[in-house]
Design brief:
11-stranded mixed sheet, binds glutamine, alpha/beta
Length: 484
């Protein structure tokens, strides 16, 4: 079997036992990328030389018998909005073309300290705004299960890379579902951690009160492994919590006896019958494994899409003000004066969706509209949080589909922005409340992967891994090899 087909934890075990060298592993992934990525478009930059050099360093450590990190020799793909020293960080935007990160994001530092190997930077929706990856300024990512379909977004490159065996693990970012939705469209496991669990230091900001780095792997164990490594307090991000990071491996047991799972009625109204059926099957598995599954109600969730798009756009309009053609990357060629540099660079450098969000965000923050939109949205945010807290004081997790549809056709939704936004209905409430949530594959509808979502209490990632693992080990839906 080719090495690229192994799961991350299997690679690590083989490397530690000296069955294979880290260099062989990384070369196997690099040749996989070379073979298929021209069809898929998951990578914006492949770190060929750097990754081989890193792998050799790991091999020397092994030869010398030095202590190895948790991710020794595991090849990892990083979304192109997370800084890796010496590599591009374009956010898939023209405005950052040519920009090279002068430092590592905190999460990347952690990955490096644990002896992982960074394979490259993955494609995404521009500035993480989108649900299909069609907003990349450079190229569209294709879904590995059907190349005429989207991989989801905005971390579509990171999801497609793991699903198609172009990386063992990957990092994405989440503002409103950008890890969970593409993970579910591509048939892999993806986690959005609690706000404050993982540092945002070195990650290009979209909406700072919602953003969080998320993790992706082929199975729950892989996802838990990388989550443990990147989690933890960072004095460079004052919103990170100084709460001990558990050994998530301890949570990987099949036992979920007595665990309480809430099923929000509101989320199942009008849901596509075939997806509904998949979720009902998941509920049956949990019941068989001893969990208590009960109907609950989260009445305010209907407001979350509107709430999210007001808050996210408001914050984005402020965060993206720093891209002015002076400090980073791209600068327009023609300008008369300093103001002109800014106007022309932004006009030429930003894509349509990014401009739409900046305009919307500026509008809801402007005098006269601030109270009517932004301030009201913050109040609604609090109510949504309280809705969740009420339920999560009695339940260990809430279950929902991850997305109302499977991967849709390229071009199907990008003319109708509202229908694209509505696809985020199950994921955005979690970011609004700052809660953790995981998506787990639960089979296929017409050949396309479906995922279900478990939402947990603050810093309850361990419980989510436990439930997800229990389900995964009771079924056989995972990791069909995409026909690419
Ligand atoms: N699809 C959502 C949006 O376009 C979420 C994006 C994200 O999580 N980065 O805003």
């Amino acid at each position: 079997m080719e090495l690229y087909r192994l799961k991350a934890h299997e690679i690590r075990d083989k490397i530690i036992r000296k069955d294979v060298k880290a260099e062989e592993v990384v070369k196997s992934f690099l040749s996989r990328i070379e073979d298929i990525d021209s069809k898929l478009g998951a990578y914006l930059y492949v770190a060929k030389e750097e990754s081989i050099k890193e792998a050799k360093r790991v091999d020397i450590k092994i030869e010398k018998g030095e202590k190895l990190g948790l991710l020794a020799g595991i090849p990892i793909a990083i979304k192109d909005n997370i800084s890796v020293l010496g590599m591009q960080n374009t956010c898939a935007s023209k405005i950052l073309e040519g920009y090279i990160s002068p430092y590592d994001a905190f999460v990347v530092k952690k990955l490096k300290t644990c002896d992982s190997v960074i394979l490259g930077k993955t494609n995404m929706d521009e500035f993480a705004m989108g649900s299909s990856n069609e907003n990349s300024a450079f190229k569209i990512v294709k879904n590995p299960f059907d190349l005429s379909r989207v991989p989801g977004g905005s971390s579509g490159g990171s999801a497609a890379a793991v699903a198609s065996y172009e990386a063992a693990l990957s990092l994405g970012t989440e503002t409103g579902g950008s890890v969970r939705q593409p993970a579910s469209f591509c048939g892999i496991v993806g986690l959005k951690p609690t706000y404050g669990r993982v540092s945002r230091n070195g990650v290009v900001a979209f909406a700072s009160t919602l953003d969080q780095v998320g993790t992706m792997g082929k199975d729950v164990e892989d996802c838990a492994l990388i989550t443990e490594v990147v989690s933890g307090v960072d004095k460079g991000d004052f919103t990170t919590a100084d709460i001990e990071v558990p050994n998530y491996k301890k949570f990987l047991t099949k036992d979920v006896k007595g665990k309480r799972i809430g099923v929000p009625e509101e989320f199942f109204n009008g849901l596509d019958g075939k997806i509904h059926k998949k979720i009902s099957d998941v509920l049956r598995v949990f019941k068989e494994n001893g969990a208590i599954v009960e109907k609950i109600s989260l009445p305010l969730l209907n407001y979350s899409i509107a709430d999210y798009y007001i808050i996210a756009c408001a914050e984005a309009s402020s965060n993206l003000a720093r891209f002015d053609g002076v400090k980073y990357g791209f600068r327009a060629k023609n300008f008369k004066d300093a103001e002109d540099i800014c106007i022309n660079s932004r006009t030429e450098g930003f894509g349509r969706e990014v401009k739409r969000r900046i305009i919307l965000g500026t509008y809801v923050l402007s005098k006269g509209y601030y109270d009517a939109y932004y301030k009201k949205a913050l109040k609604v945010r609090n109510l949504i949080k309280m809705d969740f807290q009420k339920v999560l004081s009695k339940y260990d997790a809430i279950i929902t589909p991850t997305s109302p549809t499977t991967a849709f056709k390229i071009g199907e939704k990008n003319k109708d922005v509202l229908s694209m936004y509505l696809g985020d209905v199950y994921t955005v409430p979690v970011n609004i409340a700052g809660l953790p949530a995981i998506t787990v594959p639960c089979g296929y509808v017409e050949g396309l992967p479906v995922g279900f979502q478990l939402i947990g209490n603050y810093f309850g990632e361990g419980t989510l891994f436990n439930l997800a693992f229990s389900y995964e080990k009771s079924t056989k839906h995972q990791n069909e090899i995409p026909n690419i």
